[in-house]
Amino acid sequence: MSDARPVAAADSQTQSWWDATRESRLLVQHCRACGHHQHYPRALCTECGSLDIEDVEASGRGTVYSFTVVHRAPHPAFTPPYVVALVRLEEGPVLLSNIVGADHGDVRCDVRVKVAWEDLPDGRKLPVFSLES
Ligand SMILES: [Zn+2]
Question: Are strands 37-38 and 27-31 parallel, antiparallel or unpaired?
Fold first, then answer.
């Protein structure tokens, strides 16, 4: 087993999202028909079924919807303890991510967070979040 963090490969549905991460831009999909925002990238709007969707840049700000502190890592790439969180972006979608740069005892539901970026070996970046000061 490699010690590198396991990360999904880009595919035809997620390529533009991953490409934007190389420039530290966090994209979400926006439905032109109903205004719904969604993440992860899909072929149609999960709210109304429209195919008229576009990528838009998210603010990168949100709040912790829920979280857990992991004390036993499932893979050698992760050093416990660390925080896995569901982050609700200002635009609405929820991302599964990490809270970094904070004492895990300071993480609470509803605290404000902003995106940070973790470099991946292939030039892509992974959106993680830090507490807003
Ligand atoms: Zn829609």
Answer: antiparallel
